[in-house]
Design brief:
alpha/beta, 4-stranded antiparallel beta sheet, binds pyridoxal-5'-phosphate, 7-stranded mixed beta sheet
Length: about 400
């Protein structure tokens, strides 16, 4: 007998992946230049030169056994020291190697962190719209998920909704800023207010409520936007970081967990993280990549290509008449669908070879996500198609 839960997860691939598969088929039929595939958040700018240089340098200078061998389960000590030092310097937050656990990207950081803190009956709050895998990961850790809708139009935290959702079973809240799918960066005021709110709730219910800060897009922000570093504002925080998007290396699977030393029982939380990593077979993240990211720590990506896309798409679509959330970061644009049923809207968009992701799997209805991490030509060439789609809806009115 198979695990029915896993069987259904495996059979029901994510809607993003489904569209991506459709796009491959369609591109083979009519040519890739004729398909406007906005489905996947796959970075389209190359990894900084320093990444390739570091890898080549390690291959040339290391003994092969040392380079490709296991590191300790939680990661190489020097790598963890480098990352901890960088956190302290950049964010003015105390950090040491003993707070850092190296992982295979943000997905692993999240699954390990959730597994480390969740007990039977615990609830995890997801702020909608949220990255669909958050729900999969939280439920797999045994949590009951509670969705809290954010406030339109900017999708900031709605504290009256949050007040209704937090209760004596609340164990964690996942905060993802810059956000996938909206691109919104939560303001310092929002984070301060969230910290005050959760501190009060911790007192009221006499238990820890952990913020799990999912931060793969931290470095992807525009117009000098500042992303508040949550451990600075709230003690019970675990940061799930990934280099997938900041260094354009999603296939290399590398990231880390930072367990804030200011957590009530930080040392034991770190042990629980080690235990969760062990129980799920997530020990010793790829050795070569651990060293590479340490060598590249602090290197900023060149965001000019994403920024150009962001402006062209946001301005182009709003000029046509679409309504969209102006993104501060990441590489997604969240656009209001032209009918209530976002999936039906996406189906109709396919007529113009526009491949968009309906918002339902992100926990809200009536929007679509456009991943603009594509070549600029695709943005420019797709605007007439968006215009035709808009006209088609308007003619029906
Ligand atoms: N969290 C969010 C919000 C994401 O958008 C993604 C990937 O798109 C992940 C986590 C997973 O990142 P990684 O590829 O580093 O596992």
């Amino acid at each position: 007998m198979l695990s029915q839960k896993m069987l259904s997860l495996g059979k029901k691939s994510s809607s993003i992946r489904e569209i991506f598969e459709y796009s491959k088929k369609r591109k083979a039929e009519i040519g890739s230049e004729n398909v406007f595939d906005f489905s996947l958040g796959n970075p389209s700018i190359p990894a900084p030169k320093e990444v390739d240089d570091a890898i080549k340098g390690f291959i040339d200078s290391f003994d092969s056994i040392d380079l490709h061998g296991y590191t300790s389960a939680q990661g190489d000590m020097q790598v963890r020291e480098t990352i901890a030092k960088s956190i302290t310097e950049r964010f003015d937050v105390p950090a040491s190697a003993n707070n850092i656990y190296m992982t295979c990207g943000a997905a692993a950081s999240l699954t390990i962190s959730l597994k480390a803190i969740i007990n039977e009956g615990d609830e995890v709050i997801l702020l909608a719209p949220y990255f669909p895998e958050h729900k999969v990961f939280a439920e797999n850790a045994g949590a009951v998920v509670r969705e809290v809708l954010c406030k339109e139009p900017r999708f900031e935290i709605d504290f009256s909704e949050l007040e209704m959702a937090v209760n004596k079973n609340t164990r964690a809240i996942i905060v993802n800023s810059p956000n996938n799918p909206t691109g919104v960066v939560l303001s310092e005021d929002n984070i301060k207010r969230l910290s005050e709110f959760l501190n009060e709730k911790q007192k009221q219910f006499g238990r820890e409520i952990t913020i799990i800060a999912d931060e793969p897009y931290r470095e992807l922000v525009y117009d000098d936007e500042v992303v508040p570093y949550i451990p600075k504002y709230y003690d019970n925080t675990i940061v799930c970081y990934s280099y997938s998007k900041s260094l354009s290396i999603p296939g290399e699977r590398i990231g880390y967990i930072f367990v804030s030393p200011k957590m009530e029982n930080s040392e034991d939380t770190f042990f629980a993280v080690c235990g969760a990593g062990r129980s799920m077979g997530y020990v010793c993240a790829p050795s070569l990549l651990q060293r590479t990211v340490a060598a590249c720590e602090g290197i900023k990506p060149d965001l000019s290509a994403y920024d150009k896309n962001r402006k062209a798409l946001y301005e182009g679509l709003t000029k046509i008449g679409y309504s969209a959330v102006r993104p501060d970061g990441a590489f997604y644009l969240f656009v209001k669908a032209l009918e209530e049923d976002a999936a039906a809207f996406c189906e109709r968009a396919k007529k113009y070879e526009l491949l968009l992701v309906p918002s339902d799997s992100f926990g809200v209805s009536g929007y679509v996500r456009i991943a603009y991490c594509v070549g600029y030509e695709q943005i420019a060439n797709s605007l007439p198609a968006f215009e035709m789609l808009y006209k088609e809806y308007n003619e029906e009115k």
